[in-house]
């Protein structure tokens, strides 16, 4: 079939294709909605779609024929087919080309392997068939001409969203010497081609595509996007480091080259005790501080707040509470670092106030007989009263204190009094020195040190006295007994 014939309208192309749109702000939410969408419109063939598995969409055979008619495929000698696009594996071998696949899970010292058809496919004694393909080693200097990847959704700029926990980006970087001149093709259903994949859902670690093939058409990306050439260590977890041998040596090379190689920090890491089947134990990674953010739009969602914070702070933070225009969030950084990073945070037209709080860290470790609870308190070393503030607001005082490079926690302005109470992490002498000559507007502020007292512990409530009044009915029953 010639490329010209492929581009001619087919009867199937006249069928109205349902349109899928991205309306969520998180990748996982998009994947779940897509799976529901495909099932609802009966656009899959066998297995139900899942966020962790590329869908076997209707018309995949027609899409494979169109892909095989591409000039780039015809001229290719070596084709790398990612898992999830199995229909292309047979096509590659039928056309007499070398079929290459990633090592499952990247659990070996090599990235790629060659697949050849197993001519002796027999049933074993247990009724199972022997593997369909034989796996062979490939040379280190192998050059791959074409890469076929699956996609959950893709736009006409070449940006794509892969399945949950996909590793195409890692495979691309770790096998970089073999993929210098590769052309990237993806096969999807027509409804999986969306208007736009948001920038927040496409990172520097993701692999952009050059050609999109659907059952009815071929879309060529006009301005091809750059491919990843280095690992984004901030999204690599410790679990990935343990299970992918090549990452350790690559990380060492990047570190020697002066690159940032800090791994992702997850706020909550679930530990599964397979021996006893206990999945309830949780280990919380130590966080640096806890802050309150307000005011926030009342209709603000968790995903929207996380997207805003990702632009300001390092990955690994956790939003614990979001309600009534207020949020409580945990960060890896210290109090002073967070205050500095978020001091200009605005949402809409309103500036967000940052208040440092104390937090409790709870740690449960497998094999421990008791839970260990550690209360981590922000140490405040001095307390001051500010007078003659005039009509100054909290934001005005906070801005003035930030300019003097002091680190404060609790801050309260009493209305119509021109007085405020503030706690500081510095000693009193250092605060006096930094705040010398402090003025807000035309008001020369008076700073007075107060005694930093301890919080009073609440006395335990006395136990309630049991009532001596007894019902007549109960008394009669006792008499009968």
How would you explain this protein's 3D organization?
With about 475 residues, the protein is α+β, with helices and mostly antiparallel strands. The protein is about 25% helix and about 25% strand. The protein is built from 13 helices and 27 strands. It has helices spanning about 5, 25-40, 60-70, 70-75, 85-95, 170-175, 240-245, 245-255, 300-310, 335-340, 395-405, 430-435, 470-480; strands at about 80, 100, 110-115, 135, 145-150, 155, 160, 185, 195, 210-215, 220, 270, 280-285, 290-295, 320-325, 325-330, 345, 350, 355, 360-365, 370-375, 380-385, 410-415, 420-425, 440, 445, 445-450. The strands form 8 sheets. The chain has an 8-stranded mixed beta sheet. Strands 15-16-14-19 form a 4-stranded antiparallel beta sheet, covered by helices on one side. A 4-stranded antiparallel beta sheet has the order 23-24-22-27, covered by helices on one side. Helix 5 links the parallel strand 1 and strand 2 (about 100). Helix 3 packs parallel to helix 5 (about 85-95). The longest helix has 14 residues, at about 25-40. The chain is elongated and about 85 Å long.
Count of separate DSSP helical elements:
13
Q: Give the class from helix and strand content and strand pairing.
A: alpha+beta
What's the count of strands?
A: 27
Largest sheet: 8 strands, mixed
Radius of gyration: 31 Å
| Strand arrangement across the biggest beta sheet | 4-3-2-1-5-8-10-11
Strand percentage: 15-25%
What is the end-to-end distance? 97 Å
* Low confidence ranges: 1-13, 267-285, 362-377, 454-458
Question: How does the overall form come out from the CA principal axes?
Answer: elongated
Mean pLDDT: 79
Helix content: 10-25%
């Amino acid at each position: 079939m010639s490329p010209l014939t492929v581009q001619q309208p087919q009867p199937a192309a006249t069928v109205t294709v349902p349109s899928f749109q991205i309306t969520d702000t998180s990748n996982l939410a998009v994947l779940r909605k897509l799976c529901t969408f495909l099932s609802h419109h009966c656009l899959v063939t066998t297995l139900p779609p899942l966020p962790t598995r590329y869908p076997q969409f209707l018309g995949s055979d027609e899409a494979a024929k169109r892909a095989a008619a591409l000039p780039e495929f015809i001229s290719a000698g070596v084709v790398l087919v990612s898992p999830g696009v199995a229909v292309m594996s047979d096509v590659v071998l039928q056309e007499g080309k070398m079929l290459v696949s990633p090592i499952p899970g990247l659990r070996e010292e090599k990235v790629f392997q060659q697949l050849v058809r197993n001519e002796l496919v027999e049933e074993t004694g247990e009724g199972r068939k022997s593997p369909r393909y034989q796996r062979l080693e490939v040379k280190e200097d192998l050059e791959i001409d074409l890469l076929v990847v699956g996609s959950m959704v893709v736009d006409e700029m070449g940006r794509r969203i892969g399945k949950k926990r996909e590793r195409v980006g890692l495979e691309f970087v770790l096998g970089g010497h073999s993929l210098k001149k590769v052309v990237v093709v993806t096969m999807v259903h027509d409804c999986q081609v969306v208007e736009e994949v948001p920038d927040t859902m496409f990172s520097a670690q993701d692999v952009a595509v050059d050609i999109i093939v659907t059952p009815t058409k071929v879309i060529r990306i006009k301005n091809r996007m750059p491919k990843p050439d280095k690992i984004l260590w901030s999204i690599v977890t410790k679990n990935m480091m343990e299970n992918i041998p090549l990452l350790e040596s690559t990380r060492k090379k990047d570190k020697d080259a002066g690159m940032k190689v800090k791994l992702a920090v997850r706020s909550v890491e679930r530990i599964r005790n397979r021996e006893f089947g206990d999945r309830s134990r949780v280990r919380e990674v130590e966080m640096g501080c806890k802050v309150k953010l307000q005011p926030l739009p009342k209709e603000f969602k968790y995903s929207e707040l996380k997207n805003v914070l990702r632009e300001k702070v390092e990955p690994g933070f956790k939003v614990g509470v979001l309600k009534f225009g207020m949020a409580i969030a945990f960060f890896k950084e210290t109090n002073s670092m967070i205050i500095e990073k978020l001091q200009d945070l605005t949402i809409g037209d309103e500036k967000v106030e940052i208040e440092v709080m104390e937090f409790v860290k709870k740690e449960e470790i497998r094999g421990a007989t008791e839970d260990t609870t550690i209360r981590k308190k922000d140490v405040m070393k001095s307390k001051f009263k500010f007078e003659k503030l005039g009509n100054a607001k909290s934001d005005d005082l906070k801005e003035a204190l930030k300019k003097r490079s002091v680190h404060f926690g609790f801050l309260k302005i009493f209305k119509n009094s021109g007085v405020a109470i503030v706690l500081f992490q510095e000693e009193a002498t250092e605060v006096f020195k930094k705040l010398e000559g402090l003025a807000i507007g035309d008001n020369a502020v008076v700073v007075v040190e107060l005694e930093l007292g301890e919080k009073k512990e609440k006395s335990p409530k006395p136990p309630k006295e049991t009532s001596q009044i007894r019902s007549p009915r109960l008394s009669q029953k006792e008499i009968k007994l």
